[in-house]
Amino acid sequence: MTFDHSPVPGELMQARRLFSPKAWTSLLLAVLVLALLPLLNLVFSAGHPLHVSSYAIGLMGKFMCYALAALALDLVWGYAGILSLGHGVFFALGGYAHGMYLMRSIGSDGVYQSELPDFMVFLNWKEYPWYWAFTDHFAYAMLLVVLVPGALAFVFGYFAFRSRIKGVYFSIITQAMTFAAMLLFFRNETGFGGNNGFTDFKRILGFDITAPTTRAGLYWTTLAVLLLSLIVARWLTQSKLGRVLTAVRDAESRLRFLGYDPLGYKLFVWTVSAIMCGIAGALYVPQVGIINPGEMSTENSIEMAIWVATGGRGTLIGPLLGAGVVNGLKTWFTSVFPEFWLYALGLIFVLTTLFLPQGIVGLIRRLTARFNGKNPI
Questions:
Q1: Average pLDDT of the chain to the nearest whole number
Q2: Are 79 and 239 in contact (CB under 8 A)?
């Protein structure tokens, strides 16, 4: 006797659906609420009950950039089982690529009133190095934001994955890559501002970068990119590619036995993740107003992994929540107990590992199932 396990049309429709109607409603409602915040800043003056401060707008914009970086890491860790402890380098490279354009946009408004950035004048540079060519064009700088992290990820990933390096060994070499890049960018002769990096930005696309309307525009752009990235990531993970990636995560040896070569799949999602992280860094720089080698520190990359773990690895939505929750706690802790933040961060990771292995999203699912009278799995 044989059984037909072919999916019925309703099941096919469910499989192709990116989000359920309830999830779409919740997502769009959250986006609407977030999109209204800059309007409350622009429309209502300070002191009005509905006014949202410029500081809060900048802080939320920064959190969304972190959320995008966490989403990028979840693609490779949550779905392909590739734990990267070096995504900070892709974040910083995207930031530096955009920062080069922002530094060129200062023009002669710097301290030394030179067409060269102040740090180049201070170091007695006479002209821009060759790799700064065309960075005064916004479109070219945005191309660098995509190409530089993507190219580094592709080359690094090709040799690492071809050598079948995985697990803790892969995590270690990604951390070594990030640390090496940080040491390189700390050097003044590299032409990236050394220890101080890039700062004191004046304009972006001709607009005053500190103007409330410009800040609102950057905020909305970040929100739109985050939403689009979430939809693209969801589409990738729901596709056949996503199922292969899950198989790579759960049973790579068996996948090879079935005739699949994981190299191309891992390399693709690794490169896409790096590009997303670079875009997050590019959006981060004009809103925060600085980029320096500290963004490449190994601590920053480890924090990204904690965001993903706290929110819920392999859920896409979870890392967004994790980035917001952890960085919200960080903002409060560093203002009240700055010397204890690293201890608190370690405690968050330990408690999450012990009591919330599926993160915040897993906790919400269990509570929802219990409320509905179902047995949580």
A1: 91
A2: no
